[in-house]
Amino acid sequence: MWAGSTQLTGRLPRVTVSTTAHAVQDLTAAARDLLGVSRLTNRALASWVHGLPGVDQVGCEARAASLGTRSIKTTAKAWAIDTAISMIDLTTLEGADTVGKVRSLCAKALVPDPIDPTTPRPAAICVYGDMVATAKQALGDSGIHVAAVATAFPSGRAAMPVKLADTRAAVEAGADEIDMVIDRGAFLSGDYLTVFSQIAEVKQACGDAHLKVILETGELVTYDNVRRASYLAMLAGGDFIKTSTGKVSPAATLPVTLVMLEAVRHWRELTGVQVGVKPAGGIRTSKDAIKYLVMVNEVAGDDWMSPEWFRFGASSLLNDLLLQRQKLATGAYSGADYVTID
Amino acid sequence: MPKFEYAPAPESRAVVTIEKSYGLYIDGAFSRPKDTFETINPADESVLAEVSQAGPKDVDRAVAAARRAYEGVWGRLSGSERGKYLFRIARILQERAREFAVLETLDNGKPIKETRDVDVPIAAAHFFYHAGWADKLEFAGLAPTGGTPPRPHGVVGQIIPWNFPLLMLAWKIAPALATGNTVVLKPAETTPLTALLFAEVCQQADLPPGVVNIVTGDGRTGEALVDHPGVDKIAFTGSTEVGKAIARRIAGTSKKATLELGGKAANIVFDDAPIDQAVEGIVNGIFFNQGQVCCAGSRLLVQESVHDAVLARLKRRLETLRVGDPMDKNSDLGAINSRAQLDRITSLVDAGVAEGAERWSPECTLPARGFWFPPTVLTGVSQTHRVATEEIFGPVLSVLTFRTPQEAVAKANNTSYGLSAGVWTEKGSRILWMADQLRAGVIWANTFNRFDPTSPFGGYKESGYGREGGRHGLEAYVTTAALTTGAAR
């Protein structure tokens, strides 16, 4: 069995969760224990996820909208902008990605704003697996993590050995974090055991790398499904639950993130294990990012208010945050040419 | 651990001009202020302005002006012309929304978030909605087919409470004008300012003089209006006690009345409810407008099997409520409207605790000046406790439990009121069954405290009679007569 060998020197501390189980059999045993069953069958998983309280769509969206009306000004805004920058997984996931493009993005992460050296750095660079080594080399010992999407991202439609090989290759190349996709087809057809097993197997293949589980909520459609998939992902050992690949519309939304934040909060009450949340895709403005932070603050609480527990999957968001940051510092808006295009 | 502290985000007071003193608005003009009393900001007890106490002679002048306007111009105007005025008023309310929101918050103590997002927009929506009805009354099904078209009563005396000053004004004035009545309105003693600003809107809209008259004052002004022989109908929103007094005073006269009174609504949470949204609904049900809502969900009836889970989530949620300066855009709870109301809340909660209820509030620092009461949950409440039967009209939730749907219905209906109720369950058939069983004028399913001009609002039993809003609301402002001729009967 592959064992994680990368030595992490990053500024983000490794998360210690109360279950140290990474092996599939350990995760399965923990799941059996939580569900109170002697064998983890699809029926057991189905009755468990179907037993979760439902989500009322109207109420959920109304709550998300009302949190969106918080007025975040002056010092609170400055704090939120810096916090949001530090939570970004700066992302490029294109077929056209090149070594040059990835290096350029890494340079941006190292020096987000050449005008202001006090600007915080994003948490990670998020790339396809074959770009991990390039990113790793470019980031050096800066402490900025490298996250790789894996498991036949974005569709996830590949044989399991391929998904595992994809994951291992990225980890061996030095990825600190793996962003996997769940099998939405299996989920939507009610095959929860397959979803669980795949996550658990990928978790095992990750070794010490941090596992983010992408639910692709735009394909799950209902909030009930989002809640069920969130619980399945946490049960199977995901360190983070993530909304979207960014390749399907709608990507991250506030109500979906609300459901997921409620899920991680409740999961910690239930198991003592804290799981992170990453909305990804479609978050482009500082105003949006601040709405998400308000939601983290009021729904999950302070404990999630750090890059260790909350991330934004984004690319253009960083530049908007930098523009707002410059505005707060100078009192005037600069313009698109005062932040770098990378 | 890093902490996200929201910096103060105060709304500006500069958008609204408050006069030093106000007269009465009668026959299209303001009179000179006289016999004035102060109206204060309940959040800090500072004096906002002085308003006039209208005496019987003033009420007489106002009713006479309304009568002249009814017989002279308004009663003869076509429905489409009346509609034009109402559309105009609605648009002006929207244009001046910030002004109204700020003034309402200053005078009432409720958070700016609510006046901005609820009170003022819904007030405008009521004028828009009723503007649309003005020229379609014949088709509203109010009169029998072939009968005469519905006719206005004439002069309507309207008395409104302090909890939603502008919104209640809109609920009253919009249908009255749409149906062709003219109005003498008395705002509550502690919250007269938005009604006086509305008088300016009437001027701005070129509403003919006398169609809307605003007389400020305390209960004596209200009595003069109720007793005035020139008034054809009384529309009242307020306490059950005053409502009963009004009904007694007009007994034996030809005056019509609609009364929208108190409530002690049950918010019923079943074990299959969407729990997180139910918790939001509980919060919105009882802490919206500091619980000073006649249809507030002041009794939480929670199925015993989920009582602990619901209470735990509710308490956690209440820890995030922001209580404080109503002008801060991030305040969720503002000030109680008056010292008298604060005293009433305090004494009822004390009585509840004395009777054995357990009191809980989240940690919150209340401002030193002004009238403040923390969000409060009373658990272990029984049906016999005063806090389970009497309307507290404050941010106080009484928690009771039930075991079966039948028991929930029995307990929910076991009240002298019947204004509203809430049902939380994912089971559609149960919602319909409950709605059929509950004796309340408004029943919300998987939501609470939602108001819409198209939906009738009103009570059963001691919560009053008559409906406001929707097609039903029009009925209260018209008379119908079957026209008997040789041709049709």
Automatic annotation (TrEMBL), chain B:
Residues 35-480 form the Aldehyde dehydrogenase domain. The active site is at residue 260. SUPFAM superfamilies: ALDH-like (SSF53720). Keywords: Oxidoreductase. It comes from the Bacteria. It holds the Pfam family Aldedh. Belongs to the aldehyde dehydrogenase family. This is Aldehyde dehydrogenase family protein. It comes from Intrasporangium calvum.
